Task: structure prediction
Amino acid sequence: MDILLLSFSYVAPFIVYLLLGIASKRLFSTSSKTYLDINMFVFKIFLPLSLFFNIYNSDFASVDFSDPLLISLIGTLLIFFLAIFFYGKRNLPKASKSVMIQNSFRSNFILFGIPLTQNIMGSTVSGLAGLMTALVIPLFNILSVIVLAFYYKEKVSFLKTILQILKNPLIIASLIAILLKYFELRIPGLLVDTLYPLGKIATPMALFALGGRFIFRTERSTIRLLLEGLLVRLFVVPLIAIFVSVSFGIRGEALALLLVLFGGPVAVTSYTMAQQMGGNEQLAAQLLVYTTVFSTFSLFVFISILKTYGFF
Result:
């Protein structure tokens, strides 16, 4: 019960932000354009700052490039290609295909990874969490840009796709942070103190904008995709990841991080990028809302089982 309550304590604020967005739409008759503008600022300013400082403030010195990192990177790529193969052959609108593929491989690790792992282990996590964030989050964004760009038009220019990746604010923020870490360059404290709070408001603002644009009506075809997306994101992918990780002898903190990486709700930025890059934003919004809510139950189940059998 304590684990369930602790897991819910991390999800509850996200639900509140969504409800505030919904309430603002109903109470103040706010236009949809207002929420689109908020979403644009989140995508181009607040989320890149959040990702930048997450990487910039991580301590990588004590971390080896070990099995957990290999599993996180190779596992993400395998899920990505399996999802492309599976959904690519389906008779679905291209905008929906890109969202379902993104839902399969992209989790909300940047928000859930470190806090929930600390919760599970009862102690501060090592530099492994920071290094995993620095490697996997940029990979998430690169793969998302590729799949969203590929399904955006009938014919896609390879050069234009590469340029879209390089121009993505999240990719730029990740590369700058990694370069600063590599060359051991420090940015002025005044600049950090000024910009860091802007990064902290990225998630509340993204979910607030999502709530303002969220529509409860769902078409029958979308309901099937929504249920399928919930099953894949919260049960199928984490089951495979846990089986592989345990087979490699991974236990404790590393296993907890991999559980959240592969079994957490879909990333907040998945909706933002779908809305910005021609994906089915309504499906992306519903997957974000429902995976966030139901991840409380699914993560509780996985954590309870793994703790019972002594893997944590």
User: Anything to note?
Assistant: The chain has a mean pLDDT of 85. Residues 131 and 247 are 22 Å apart (CA to CA). The domain at 2-308 is CATH 1.20.1530.20 (Na+/H+ antiporter like fold).
